[in-house]
Each structure stands twice: as C-alpha cells, then as structure tokens.
Amino acid sequence: MKHLKGLLILFLFATINSVFAVDMVEGEWELKVKYTVSGMPVANPAEHYRECITQEDPIPTSFLNARNCEVIEQRERHRTIYFRINCFTEHGSVINEGQIRFGSMRISGKSKTDLGDVAGKTTVMRYKFTGRRIGECRN
Predict the structure, then answer these.
(1) Could you tell me which residues are beta bridge partners of residue 31?
(2) Residue 131, strand partner residues
(3) Which of 34, 72, 16, 81 is nearest to 53 (CA)?
(4) What is the predicted pLDDT for the residue at 115?
(5) In order of start, what are the domains of the chain with their CATH numbers?
(6) What is the pLDDT of residue 10?
(7) What is d(CA 60, CA 36) in angstroms, rounded to the nearest whole number?
(8) What's the chain's Rg over C-alpha atoms?
(9) Is 60:129 a contact under the CB 8 Å cutoff?
(10) DSSP 3-state assignment of 54?
(11) Among positive and negative, which fits the CA dihedral 100, 101, 103, 107?
C-alpha cells in the first residue's frame, strides 16, 4: 500500500509538471534583438543571435553577452514565462528581468537590465526580441 501511494504521488507530480510546462518546441532558435539604453537618443540596429532553447532552459540569454546566467525567479502563465536572472558580465553581476511569450515555432519578449549609476546617471538597457525556431540544437 505504501508503494502504491508513493507511485500515485510521483504520477501526480509528473502530471502537474507537464501541465504547467510551456508549450514550445525545443531546438535552435534565431533571435532578432533590438535594444535601447536610457539617455541615448539614437536607437541601435537590431542584432541577430542563435541559441538552443529547451524546456529545462527556456530563457534566452545570448544577447546579454554574459558568461553565466542563473535563474533567480521563473514563473509560467499560459504561454508566457516571467523571469529574473543574475548574469555575470565583464563588468560584474547584473539582474535582467522580463518575459517571453512562446508560440510553437515563434517567440517574442522583452526584458530590462538596470546597470545602476553610469557616469552619474541611472542607466537601464531595454531589450525587445522576436525569434523563430530554425532546427535542432547543435552540440
């Protein structure tokens, strides 16, 4: 009887996890990222990145030019992931927060990174991105 209860709990946990997983297709995605920096009047041209996105690691970070990013907070609602990540860059640790909306083969999202005081001004980088799945991940 104990084993049956354990199996039932394990089954329910697995079912709940799959219900709350974002409906997306894992693979290599191409991102088009536009960013602005507070206080800069000129918009920067869009940049393109490629990144492997999986159910276990659904938050794209390639455009942050970071060596390592750690998820601080992640919650999912419908087809959207809301997140806060701590990334380590050549200038130190920064917090990036935002959201990603998944379609089966397309994503869109936005995020921001508060860089703190730069040359006497509070500086915030804001990112808007779109993406499309282009194939399987290359390992």
Answers:
(1) 49, 131
(2) 31, 107
(3) 81
(4) 84
(5) 24-135 (2.40.128)
(6) 38
(7) 18
(8) 18
(9) yes
(10) coil
(11) negative
Q: Which residues of the chain have pLDDT under 70?
A: 1-22
Sign of CA dihedral 64, 69, 73, 75: positive
* Share in percent of the chain as helix, strand, coil (round to 5): 15, 55, 30
Distance in angstroms (rounded) separating the CA atoms of residues 75 and 139? 28
Structure tokens at 52: 């492997």
Digit-coded pLDDT (tens) for 17-48: 434 456 788 999 999 999 999 878 777 899 99
Residues 6+ apart with CB under 8 A from 98: 82, 83, 109, 110, 111, 112, 127
Phi-psi map region of 39: left, alpha, beta (phi>0 left; psi -120 to 50 alpha): left
DSSP letter for each residue of 11-42: HHHHHHHHHHS-----EEEEEEEEEEETT--S
Q: How many Cβ atoms from other residues are within 10 Å of residue 99's Cβ?
A: 15
